[in-house]
């Protein structure tokens, strides 16, 4: 009668922990190299681009406004978007710097003139 009441000590407790721990570490490692590290690299490049903005650069804001930098402050830029039209914009919301004198690419005209029809 004593034989059926004894519980056997299982060695599965440590194996179950190892079975969950190794895949979890692998998933975290893969996510770091595929998602977190490239995002940090992009943020570092964007920060360097924003710090390098100088007067005369052509910039694109996050709202899509293209203009030339007229005045540079610590956190703000004054951008001329048309003759005599200037706006203040935060440095952090600049999405692209096109460089000095580099304007937007002109749109291609779809209407072509054919001189052979004259």
The unreliable regions are: 109-118
Helix tally equals: 1
- In angstroms, what separates the terminal alpha carbons? 115 Å
Instruction: Let me know the number of strands.
Output: 5
- How large, in whole angstroms, is the Cα Rg? 30 Å
Order of helices and strands: HEEEEE
Class from secondary-structure proportions? alpha+beta
> Order of strands side by side in the largest beta sheet?
4-3-2-1-5
**Estimated helix fraction:** 25-40%
Mean pLDDT: 81
Global outline: rod-shaped
Q: Hey, roughly how much beta strand do the residues contain?
A: 25-35%
Largest sheet: 5 strands, antiparallel
Quick recap:
The chain has 118 residues and is an alpha+beta fold. It contains one helix and five strands; from the N terminus they run H-E-E-E-E-E.
Structure, described:
- The chain has 118 residues and is an alpha+beta fold.
- The chain has one helix spanning 12-51; strands at residues 57-61, 66-72, 76-82, 85-90, 94-100.
- It has a 5-stranded antiparallel beta sheet with strand order 4-3-2-1-5, covered by helices on one side.
- Strand 3 and strand 4 form a beta hairpin.
Task: Give descriptors for this structure.
118 residues; alpha+beta; disordered C terminus
Write the layout of secondary structure elements.
Layout: H1 12-51, E1 57-61, E2 66-72, E3 76-82, E4 85-90, E5 94-100
Antiparallel strand pairs: 1-2, 1-5, 2-3, 3-4
């Amino acid at each position: 009668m004593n034989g059926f009441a004894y519980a056997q000590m299982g060695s599965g407790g440590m194996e179950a922990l190892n079975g969950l721990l190794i895949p979890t570490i692998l998933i975290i490692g893969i996510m770091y190299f595929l998602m977190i590290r490239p995002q940090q690299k992009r943020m570092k490049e964007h920060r360097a681009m924003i710090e390098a903005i100088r007067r005369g650069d052509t910039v694109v804001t996050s709202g899509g406004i293209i203009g030339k930098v007229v005045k540079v402050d610590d956190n703000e830029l004054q951008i001329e978007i048309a003759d005599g039209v200037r706006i203040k914009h935060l440095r952090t919301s600049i999405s692209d710097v096109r460089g000095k004198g580099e304007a937007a690419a002109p749109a291609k005209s779809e209407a072509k003139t054919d001189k052979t029809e004259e």
